[in-house]
Amino acid sequence: MLTLCIESSCDETAAAVIRDGRNILSNIVASQVDVHARYGGVVPELASRKHVEAVSVVINAALEEAGVSLSEIEGIGVTRGPGLIGALLVGISTAKAMAWALDIPLVAVHHMEGHILAPFLEDPPEFPFLALAVSGGHTHLYRVDGIGHYRIIGQTLDDAAGEAYDKVAKLLGLGYPGGALIDKLAGQGRPDAIVFPRPMLHRPNFDFSFSGIKTAALQYVEKVDKEIDDQHRADIAASFQEAMVEVLTLKTLRAATQEGLERIVVAGGVACNSGLRRRFQELAGKQGGRIYFPSPSLCGDNAAMLGVPANYYLEHGQHADTKLNAISSWPLDMVGVI
Amino acid sequence: MTLQAWETTTCSATETRELGRIFGRLAEAGLVVLLSGQLGAGKTCFAQGVGDGLGVAPSSPVTSPSYTLLNIHQGRFPLYHFDLYRLAQVDDLADLGYDEYAEGEGLTLVEWADRMSGSLISSLEVAIESLGGDRRRLHFTARDDRGGELLGQLVRKWTAVDISS
Q1: For residue A197, is pLDDT > 90?
Q2: At the fourth CATH level, which superfamily is domain B8-159?
Q3: What share of chain B is helix, strand, coil (3-state, %, to 5)?
Q4: Which of A95, A107, A299, B79 can bridge A271 by disulfide, Cβ–Cβ 3.0-4.6 Å?
């Protein structure tokens, strides 16, 4: 089945054409990274207005790159939530109008469900598995028993991991995107130079807290009264990264053990972090499990990732109608319930 | 008793959250509260307490909205938790539907409100200042009668807590 997917839940407007929930024919993201860089990480013109301008452009580009015409599309998948209502509605209204005009079915997809199922476009894991979804806005652990069957095992109680990365990057005077720059700089520093806290690491549950690491980095930088030179900055980056990676990997692996799961999917923007990938591979090797990372183009927000659940819901007749509305707060375990 | 301004010092994140919790228990629907303070000051920490006081379920933890820009939680009435950290201009706020939320039947909490200083109408402003370590100074300023009333109640409750502990 040929599916057109549309994503507009936060900063990115994206469209993709996917065949059979497996093959990516196109994956277009109207990335605003260049614009971000100019404003030091601030979004100058955001959400709905930007999505309105971009949505038809990315859809046309996705069809063109896939080499298919609109009449060949057999179903449409769209992000229903969670996210900003105004932003989500741009994608949803477009998807509804197209599905109605083309007389093809429409299905609603959860944004995080797209992220954690992204590996099915490359190297499909078997169910069940544990998923760590980690990005600027999310840090969640899910047990995944099948498409549409998710259970929340743990989540951040304050900052998302990607947010802590970006805020510490700003503190160190690095540019945007902060996470990638800290990751790069960390390679030149000593991870044991400064001991930052590991919040929640020894708690028996699987919730995270990253606000404390961020504040500790701030307090450290404030206490250094001389100019921070390049080596010192690299040491701070490496030590911060060490604390983040240790908490993320150890808690995830412990959750996998408790749930009796051998396969772990790490998805979302922070899944691009090289230090995180390396540590997960090392530790999983020792534990005898297997880790699945999507390619970088499928880690950040994109529409291709929606193709996996969209195709499944289309095949199973779980269609949405023209009354489909956006949901701003939508826990993943409520998929299929609300 | 209404109060125009009040300041207090908290010695830990737990105490800042507790102050927020009492605030959340007293808060009424339709209020707009602006939070300011630098990185790591404890704005989200205070907001977590407010959520708790409003009766937001622990399964919907009050987390930082820096990336998501707006998180909505359901308590006694809705909590609209905005964060302007990534915004550059007032137009962006309108684009998020801010006015509809702020004029609605919930409690609107706005982090990094100082990024849009002067352009937001509120009942109360809370500025959090780090005194080093875990100590924080919280400066409350009422901007209208409802804010003044709430601040008066907050001070009474908080002082009572201080005495009993």
Answers
A1: yes
A2: P-loop containing nucleotide triphosphate hydrolases (3.40.50.300)
A3: 35, 25, 40
A4: A299
